[in-house]
Amino acid sequence: YTVTGVLGTGGMATVYRARQGNIERDVAIKVIQTSLAENSEFIARFRREAQTVAQLSHPHILKVFDFGSQDDLIYLVMELQSGGSLATRLREQGRLDAESVARYLAQIGAALDYAHARGVIHRDLKPQNVLLDDADNAILSDFGIARIIGDVTRMTQSGLAMGTPTYMAPEQWYGRNVDARTDVYALAVMTYELLTGKTPFTGDMLMQQHLNEMPPSLRQRRPDLPASVEKVLLKGMAKRPEERFQSAGEFAAAFRESLSGKTPRGVDVSATQQPLTPLEGTTVGVSAPAPTPQRNKRLNAIVIFMSAIILVLSGTAIGLLLDSTAGTPEVAASSAVLAAAIDTPTSTFVPTHTPAPTIGANNVSRVAQIQRLGRGLILNEAIHLIAYSPDGRTLAVGSVVGIWLYDAADLARPPRLLGEDLIVASVSWSPDGRYLASVSFDGLASGSSDSTVRLWDAASGQSLRTLEGHTGRVWSVSWSPDGRRLASGSSDSTVRIWDAGSGQLLQTLEGHTNWVWPVSWSPDGRRLASGSDDGTVRLWDAASGQLLRALTGHTGWVLSVSW
Q1: What kind and span of H or E run contains 336?
Q2: 30 annotated binding-site participant
Q3: pTM over the 0.70 mark
Q4: pLDDT tens digits for 523-545?
Q5: In terms of C-beta density within 10 A (0-12 exposed, 13-18 middle, 19 or more buried), how is residue 4 classed?
Q6: WD repeats span which residues (predicted)?
Q7: Which of 218, 243, 271 is the endpoint of a domain?
Q8: Looking at the annotation, which residues are catalytic?
Q9: What are phi and psi of 128, to 5 degrees?
Q10: Could you give the CA distance from residue 176 to residue 314 in angstroms, rounded to a whole number?
Q11: What pLDDT was estimated at residue 321?
């Protein structure tokens, strides 16, 4: 293959235009960079998944011609389509006419039904993922590659998986199994967008809207469409999977019929917007055939580390959320803490930004929901950590969609969101409570993707500064007692000390021989402690950067330190 240009770049992959020399055809090559390219377990699974995808043969599914791995890259060679996507068509036209939408839906529905019958769920339908060929036919891009991308994400980011909140069905938010009806929900959301130029749910409270609210009236935005069309879309976006159309083809056919003004048989929307509750049973669905691999030791350590954090945090949060309950509350696990286990990876031909609001892998490394009994306060997103401001008035909740700031005196008041679409791994308040430092797993902010730390103004939510210098994933950040410095620990085996005011790198503390997880300042701010996968705790002089002492004796990795 001879690369001739770049088609697009996303968070984990780059898509190139290339020429296949032996048969002289133009192709698209998606290159995914990952340290797992030399992991035999991952490569074996990658090959299984790629083979499954390559075997999908449908006129409206993008073809996969070839796949492989080399050095720290894995790649897939795909059919090249140059007609743009439904997203570009929307940008050009604002909205689409109903007849065109019906034609696209018939093609997409047929492709989805074909894939669903073979155990493959798309999981991330959106206009960007529907390509158009030269004859203006809809082509579902990278169908099934979503699971491969999801494997990279889960194995490198401690169980995190990917999805797009704007299109996600309620069962995905609650951490349920996904099936064909999950794709139907996303297809209905996308149809609403194609018809109106706007998605039904927007803003900072997407989860609340998808779980509990009716979509805005379609006919207020498109009064030229008959009421029957709106009824079909409402059934497609029913909160409960069993109340939706049971296949994508059924939805597409009902939409076509509704354009005549006739309400299709079985379209009764009187109960379709009843909320799906977090305690209802798991849906039974189709899943792509792929055995779960055993995680290697490092990945197990990540799971254990995050599990340990969450076990502590869940207790803290439950105590916090139940603080007004007299006596010792009896907390039922089913109503107080719900752990999520979900696969929601992303699939794109030209890479697009796909936020990651949910989690994956069957472990207890995240708390997906904490409910205040008697008040119904729900922190719906997966929670990584909870930190009070120094004055105790504000509660910072680091989650997989950003940093939620709650009024600690009134948790029922809607919180503010900092850093929307960030997967926050660590957060630290400045001693005066005016600022926050965070690290995350999203390339839009601090953390593993770009090896940075980000500073925020807690009052305005403004991003103030990005601290750059680490060459590996940043796992922790801690503010010095005097508020003048920050310390961060990284997978590059270093601890770095920063000037909080200017962002200047003051010290790089070298000595650990493996990942650095926690960092902790001494109360007087003169010393710093760090723990590492190398089994040591190291004490540093914070002013000079000199190693004062290495505490040995652990036979495993050190995942927490405290003065």
Answers
A1: helix 333-336
A2: yes
A3: no
A4: 999 999 999 989 999 999 999 99
A5: exposed
A6: 444-466, 467-508, 509-550
A7: 271
A8: 124
A9: -65, -25
A10: 20
A11: 37
